[in-house]
Amino acid sequence: MAGGIREQHGDELSENHEINVTPFIDVMLVLLIIFMVAAPLATVDINVDLPASTAKPAERPDEPLYLTVKEDLSLNIGNDAVARDQLAATLDRVTEGKKDTRVFLRADKAVGYGQFMEVMNLLRDSGYLKIALVGLETLPAPAAPAAAPAGAAPVVPPVPPAAGGNP
Q1: Is this model's pTM higher than 0.85 or not?
Q2: Burial class, 53, CB count within 10 angstroms (exposed 0-12 / middle 13-18 / buried 19+)
Q3: Structure confidence at residue 139 as a pLDDT band (50, 70, 90)
Q4: Are 107 and 118 spatial neighbours (Cβ–Cβ below 8 Å)?
């Protein structure tokens, strides 16, 4: 019992050896409410420019195998153009049938995500499961105001009217 029953009647108070758990319950309920409020905020959609990365570049093999998806959705292995239906045969010829060869996949920014996934599916269907995505290597930019997109009109802040009437 939290309060305890006094068995002695006198001026001397006995020690209560029971733990009062009410503050612990209050803290746990407050933490529960905080996490319930914070959890939906952790899944906010953020616009991301995926092709650039500031990560440390991975070690590259002596002769990497690059598969490039150009803006017009044509495919190139190294510098040689290849048709989509010939991709598996060309990869087998270039890698000498080694399916564990890492394929460095790079694509133009203008290539849509759906088309990019189609190329990845072609690689997977061909048996090439080691796929490395290639992006631009950039240095972290210092905090600066966001630049306007190319071709956009510059934003000019409005000028407050002069005090005291017309100029």
Answers
A1: no
A2: middle
A3: low
A4: no
